[in-house]
Protein backbone atom coordinates (compact mmCIF):
# COMPACT_ATOMS: atom_id res chain seq x y z
CA UNK A 1 0.00 0.00 0.00
CA UNK A 2 1.41 3.40 -0.99
CA UNK A 3 1.54 5.89 1.91
CA UNK A 4 -0.85 8.84 1.72
CA UNK A 5 2.04 11.35 1.68
CA UNK A 6 3.67 9.56 -1.26
CA UNK A 7 0.37 9.54 -3.11
CA UNK A 8 -0.10 13.26 -2.47
CA UNK A 9 3.36 13.92 -3.90
CA UNK A 10 2.53 11.83 -6.96
CA UNK A 11 -0.81 13.62 -7.43
CA UNK A 12 0.97 17.01 -7.22
CA UNK A 13 3.52 15.90 -9.81
CA UNK A 14 0.82 14.52 -12.12
CA UNK A 15 -1.01 17.85 -11.89
CA UNK A 16 2.17 19.73 -12.75
CA UNK A 17 2.81 17.51 -15.78
CA UNK A 18 -0.78 17.28 -17.03
CA UNK A 19 -2.38 20.57 -15.82
CA UNK A 20 -5.33 20.26 -18.21
CA UNK A 21 -6.12 16.64 -17.55
CA UNK A 22 -4.59 15.26 -14.33
CA UNK A 23 -5.75 11.92 -12.96
CA UNK A 24 -8.41 12.33 -10.29
CA UNK A 25 -6.92 11.50 -6.88
CA UNK A 26 -9.31 8.56 -6.59
CA UNK A 27 -8.00 7.06 -9.81
CA UNK A 28 -4.38 7.46 -8.70
CA UNK A 29 -5.31 5.82 -5.39
CA UNK A 30 -6.74 2.81 -7.17
CA UNK A 31 -3.80 2.62 -9.59
CA UNK A 32 -1.48 2.53 -6.59
CA UNK A 33 -3.56 -0.11 -4.83
CA UNK A 34 -3.33 -2.23 -7.98
CA UNK A 35 -0.05 -1.36 -9.71
CA UNK A 36 2.28 0.16 -7.09
CA UNK A 37 4.93 -2.41 -8.05
CA UNK A 38 4.92 -0.97 -11.56
CA UNK A 39 5.40 2.68 -10.67
CA UNK A 40 8.87 4.15 -11.22
CA UNK A 41 9.65 7.65 -10.04
CA UNK A 42 12.56 10.03 -10.59
CA UNK A 43 13.58 12.34 -7.77
CA UNK A 44 15.47 15.60 -7.95
CA UNK A 45 15.51 19.07 -6.45
CA UNK A 46 14.03 17.78 -3.20
CA UNK A 47 10.99 16.06 -4.63
CA UNK A 48 9.49 13.92 -7.34
CA UNK A 49 10.20 15.13 -10.87
CA UNK A 50 9.08 12.27 -13.09
CA UNK A 51 7.14 9.04 -13.15
CA UNK A 52 6.05 6.17 -15.33
CA UNK A 53 3.22 3.79 -14.56
CA UNK A 54 2.90 0.44 -16.32
CA UNK A 55 0.72 -2.61 -15.90
CA UNK A 56 2.01 -6.10 -15.12
CA UNK A 57 1.91 -8.54 -18.04
CA UNK A 58 -1.49 -9.94 -18.89
CA UNK A 59 -1.32 -12.66 -21.54
CA UNK A 60 2.11 -11.27 -22.45
CA UNK A 61 0.89 -7.66 -22.85
CA UNK A 62 1.61 -4.61 -20.69
CA UNK A 63 0.36 -1.05 -21.03
CA UNK A 64 2.13 2.18 -20.24
CA UNK A 65 -0.61 4.13 -18.50
CA UNK A 66 1.34 7.31 -17.95
CA UNK A 67 4.77 8.85 -18.45
CA UNK A 68 5.71 12.36 -17.45
CA UNK A 69 8.57 14.58 -16.38
CA UNK A 70 8.11 17.92 -14.59
CA UNK A 71 8.63 20.85 -17.00
CA UNK A 72 11.79 22.07 -15.24
CA UNK A 73 13.41 18.63 -15.52
CA UNK A 74 12.73 17.91 -19.19
CA UNK A 75 15.37 17.31 -21.88
CA UNK A 76 17.80 15.80 -19.38
CA UNK A 77 17.24 12.18 -20.30
CA UNK A 78 14.80 11.37 -17.50
CA UNK A 79 11.90 10.34 -19.74
CA UNK A 80 14.13 7.98 -21.69
CA UNK A 81 15.63 6.57 -18.47
CA UNK A 82 12.22 5.95 -16.91
CA UNK A 83 10.95 4.21 -20.05
CA UNK A 84 14.11 2.13 -20.56
CA UNK A 85 14.11 0.91 -16.97
CA UNK A 86 10.42 0.03 -17.15
CA UNK A 87 10.87 -1.88 -20.41
CA UNK A 88 13.76 -3.85 -18.91
CA UNK A 89 11.65 -4.76 -15.89
CA UNK A 90 8.64 -5.72 -17.99
CA UNK A 91 10.79 -7.92 -20.22
CA UNK A 92 12.05 -9.69 -17.09
CA UNK A 93 8.46 -10.30 -15.99
CA UNK A 94 7.51 -11.95 -19.26
CA UNK A 95 5.92 -9.06 -21.16
CA UNK A 96 6.27 -9.61 -24.90
CA UNK A 97 4.28 -6.62 -26.18
CA UNK A 98 4.05 -3.11 -24.72
CA UNK A 99 1.21 -0.82 -25.74
CA UNK A 100 0.39 2.81 -25.12
CA UNK A 101 -1.87 5.61 -26.32
CA UNK A 102 -0.37 8.94 -27.26
CA UNK A 103 -1.80 12.19 -28.57
CA UNK A 104 -0.59 12.20 -32.19
CA UNK A 105 0.21 15.94 -31.85
CA UNK A 106 2.53 15.27 -28.88
CA UNK A 107 5.75 15.37 -30.90
CA UNK A 108 8.07 15.04 -27.87
CA UNK A 109 6.40 11.84 -26.69
CA UNK A 110 5.95 10.32 -30.16
CA UNK A 111 9.64 10.98 -30.94
CA UNK A 112 10.72 9.41 -27.67
CA UNK A 113 8.57 6.30 -28.24
CA UNK A 114 9.76 5.92 -31.83
CA UNK A 115 13.37 6.15 -30.67
CA UNK A 116 12.60 3.25 -28.32
CA UNK A 117 11.30 1.27 -31.35
CA UNK A 118 7.58 1.65 -30.63
CA UNK A 119 5.67 1.44 -33.92
CA UNK A 120 2.54 3.48 -34.65
CA UNK A 121 -0.67 1.63 -35.43
CA UNK A 122 -0.84 1.45 -39.25
CA UNK A 123 -4.54 2.30 -38.98
CA UNK A 124 -3.53 5.76 -37.72
CA UNK A 125 -4.95 7.81 -34.84
CA UNK A 126 -8.40 6.92 -33.48
CA UNK A 127 -10.77 9.84 -33.49
CA UNK A 128 -12.22 10.89 -30.10
CA UNK A 129 -10.66 7.83 -28.45
CA UNK A 130 -10.19 9.61 -25.09
CA UNK A 131 -13.33 11.74 -25.48
CA UNK A 132 -14.51 14.48 -27.86
CA UNK A 133 -11.53 16.01 -29.68
CA UNK A 134 -9.10 13.73 -27.84
CA UNK A 135 -7.66 11.65 -30.65
CA UNK A 136 -5.09 9.02 -29.74
CA UNK A 137 -2.53 6.95 -31.59
CA UNK A 138 -1.83 3.39 -30.46
CA UNK A 139 1.88 2.54 -30.35
CA UNK A 140 3.22 -0.96 -29.90
CA UNK A 141 6.63 -2.39 -29.02
CA UNK A 142 7.56 -6.04 -29.41
CA UNK A 143 10.07 -6.79 -26.64
C1 LIG B 1 7.52 13.28 -23.22
C2 LIG B 1 8.37 13.54 -21.98
C3 LIG B 1 8.04 12.48 -20.92
C4 LIG B 1 9.84 13.42 -22.36
O1 LIG B 1 10.61 13.50 -21.17
P1 LIG B 1 12.09 14.13 -21.16
O2 LIG B 1 12.70 13.77 -19.85
O3 LIG B 1 12.05 15.55 -21.53
O4 LIG B 1 12.75 13.29 -22.35
P2 LIG B 1 14.29 12.98 -22.54
O5 LIG B 1 15.13 14.13 -22.11
O6 LIG B 1 14.59 11.65 -21.94
O7 LIG B 1 14.35 12.87 -24.12
C5 LIG B 1 14.11 11.63 -24.73
C6 LIG B 1 13.77 11.84 -26.17
O8 LIG B 1 12.46 12.39 -26.28
C7 LIG B 1 12.41 13.22 -27.44
N1 LIG B 1 12.13 14.58 -26.99
C8 LIG B 1 11.96 15.00 -25.72
N2 LIG B 1 11.67 16.33 -25.70
C9 LIG B 1 11.62 16.73 -26.99
C10 LIG B 1 11.34 17.98 -27.62
N3 LIG B 1 11.04 19.08 -26.89
N4 LIG B 1 11.37 18.01 -28.95
C11 LIG B 1 11.67 16.92 -29.69
N5 LIG B 1 11.95 15.70 -29.14
C12 LIG B 1 11.92 15.61 -27.82
C13 LIG B 1 13.77 13.12 -28.10
O9 LIG B 1 13.71 12.02 -28.97
C14 LIG B 1 14.65 12.79 -26.93
O10 LIG B 1 15.82 12.13 -27.31
P3 LIG B 1 17.18 12.97 -27.55
O11 LIG B 1 17.40 13.79 -26.31
O12 LIG B 1 18.20 11.92 -27.76
O13 LIG B 1 16.90 13.84 -28.76
C15 LIG B 1 8.13 14.98 -21.43
O14 LIG B 1 8.24 15.89 -22.48
C16 LIG B 1 6.79 15.16 -20.74
O15 LIG B 1 6.62 14.84 -19.56
N6 LIG B 1 5.79 15.69 -21.47
C17 LIG B 1 4.46 15.96 -20.91
C18 LIG B 1 3.76 14.68 -20.54
C19 LIG B 1 3.58 13.80 -21.74
O16 LIG B 1 3.31 14.25 -22.84
N7 LIG B 1 3.70 12.48 -21.50
C20 LIG B 1 3.51 11.46 -22.53
C21 LIG B 1 2.08 11.04 -22.53
S1 LIG B 1 1.81 9.74 -23.74
UniProtKB/TrEMBL annotation:
Gene3D superfamilies: 3.40.630.30. Residues 1-143 form the N-acetyltransferase domain. InterPro entries: Acyl_CoA_acyltransferase, GNAT_dom. Pfam families: Acetyltransf_1 (PF00583). One of its GO terms (molecular function) is acyltransferase activity, transferring groups other than amino-acyl groups. It comes from the Bacteria. This is N-acetyltransferase. It comes from Streptomyces capoamus.
Amino acid sequence: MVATQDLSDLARLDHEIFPDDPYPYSVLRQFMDTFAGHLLVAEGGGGLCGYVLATPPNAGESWIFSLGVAPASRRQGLGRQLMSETLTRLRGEGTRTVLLWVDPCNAQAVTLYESLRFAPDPAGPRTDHFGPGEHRLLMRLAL
